[in-house]
Design a protein that fits this description.
By secondary structure, this protein is of the alpha+beta class. It has two domains: 5-219; 224-289, no CATH class. Helices cover 59% and strands 13% of the residues. The chain has helices at residues 5-26, 32-58, 62-83, 91-116, 127-149, 155-179, 187-191, 196-215, 273-280; strands spanning 121-122, 125-126, 224-230, 236-242, 249-256, 259-267, 284-285, 288-289. The longest helix is centred in the N-terminal third of the chain and has 27 residues, at 32-58. The protein is globular and about 45 Å long. The two termini are 47 Å apart.
Length: 304
C-alpha cells in the first residue's frame, strides 16, 4: 500500500501536534519551554490543517475542508494574538475575520443540506458536525468583530484569545486522531475507552485556564495594596504599592540621616504614583530625608 507524500507529511505533522500542544499546556506559561513547544505546535498545526483541507477538497470530503480551514484560522489568529503588541490589529486580523465568517456560513449551509437530504448525510458526514464547526467559526468571527470595535485586545482578553484558540485547535487535532482514526488503534484499547481520555483532559485544561485567566483574582489588575518589607534592623515598613503580575526584582537602599538601615527586595511589584513619586522627589518621610535609587523594571511580560 503506497501513500502520497502529502499524506505522509500530514501524518507526521499530526504525530507531532498532540504531544507538542500538550507540552505547551503543561509547562509554565511564558517560559522558554512554553514558547519552544508552542512554536513546534504552531508549525505542525499549520502543516496538518493546510494539508488536511487540501486533501479533503481533492477527495470531496467537505467536512475536512471546513475543519481544516477553521483549524488553520484558529492557530494563525492565536499566534498573532501572542505576537502582536497590546491593542494592535492589522490587515491580517481583518482577512482572518472574513475567512472565519465564510467558513462559518459554509458550515451552516452544508449542515442544512445534510439535514434535508434523504440520508441525513453530506459527503458521508452527518449534519451535526457541520453545524458545530460552523458555529465555532461564526463565534470566532464575532470575537474578531468585537476586537475591532474595542480597538484591539489587551491584558486578560489578549491572553484568553490566545489560549482558547490554541486549545480548541489542539482539541480538533485530538478528535481527528483519537476518534476520527480510532480504527487504526488496537481493539483492546478501543474497548477500554482510553481514546477518550486525551480529549477530556484537553477540554478540561482549556476550561480551567480560561476560568483562571478571566475570573481568577490572580490575573486581574490589582489596585493599591500594602507591601511589607522586612529590614535587617528587625523593624518593618508598610507602604502602598501598585502591583502587577510581573516578575521584577528591585534592590535599593534606604538612607536615613546618612546611615544605611537596610537593603531589601520587592518581588512582583511596580511602584507608581504617590509612593514612588514621594521617594524620588526626596520629600520628608516621618520628618527625615529619604533618598532612593530609581528602579530598573526592564521589559515586562505577563505570565499566567
Amino acid at each position: 500500500m503506497t501513500f502520497s507524500p502529502l499524506l505522509v507529511l500530514h501524518i507526521c505533522a499530526a504525530v507531532i501536534t498532540v504531544p507538542s500542544g500538550s507540552a505547551a499546556l503543561i509547562v509554565r506559561k511564558g517560559s522558554r519551554r512554553h514558547r519552544a513547544a508552542g512554536n513546534v505546535f504552531f508549525i505542525s498545526m499549520l502543516i496538518m490543517s493546510a494539508s488536511g483541507a487540501y486533501m479533503g477538497f481533492m477527495k470531496q470530503q467537505t467536512i475536512n475542508v471546513v475543519v481544516g480551514i477553521l483549524t488553520l484560522y484558529l492557530v494563525a489568529t492565536a499566534w498573532a494574538a501572542a505576537k502582536r503588541k497590546e491593542g494592535e490589529t492589522g490587515l491580517f486580523e481583518f482577512a482572518a475575520m472574513l475567512v472565519a465568517t465564510t467558513v462559518g456560513a459554509a458550515g451552516l449551509i452544508f449542515g442544512s443540506q445534510a439535514a434535508n437530504s434523504a440520508t441525513g448525510l453530506k459527503d458521508g458526514f452527518p449534519a451535526v458536525g457541520y453545524f458545530v464547526f460552523g458555529s465555532v467559526a461564526l463565534f470566532s468571527a464575532a470575537g474578531d468583530v468585537r476586537m475591532f470595535l474595542r480597538g484591539g485586545v489587551s491584558g486578560r482578553q489578549r491572553i484568553a484569545r490566545h489560549l482558547w484558540r490554541m486549545c480548541f485547535a489542539l482539541l480538533i487535532a485530538a478528535l481527528s486522531l483519537f476518534l476520527g482514526k480510532q480504527q487504526h488503534f488496537p481493539e483492546a484499547i478501543r474497548k477500554t475507552h482510553l481514546l477518550n481520555v486525551p480529549i477530556i483532559l484537553i477540554a478540561v485544561s482549556m476550561i480551567f485556564w480560561l476560568v483562571r485567566v478571566l475570573f481568577s483574582g490572580a490575573y486581574k489588575e490589582r489596585g493599591w495594596r500594602t507591601v511589607k518589607m522586612t529590614m535587617r534592623s528587625g523593624r518593618s515598613a508598610r507602604s502602598l504599592a501598585r502591583t502587577s503580575l510581573v516578575r521584577a526584582f528591585w534592590n535599593t537602599s534606604w538612607i536615613v540621616s546618612g546611615t544605611t538601615v537596610s537593603r531589601f527586595t520587592v518581588r512582583y511589584a511596580i511602584v507608581s504614583s504617590p509612593w514612588y513619586s514621594m521617594a524620588c522627589s526626596k520629600k520628608a518621610i516621618l520628618g527625615r530625608r529619604c533618598a532612593m535609587s530609581r528602579p530598573n523594571i526592564g521589559s515586562l511580560h505577563s505570565r499566567f
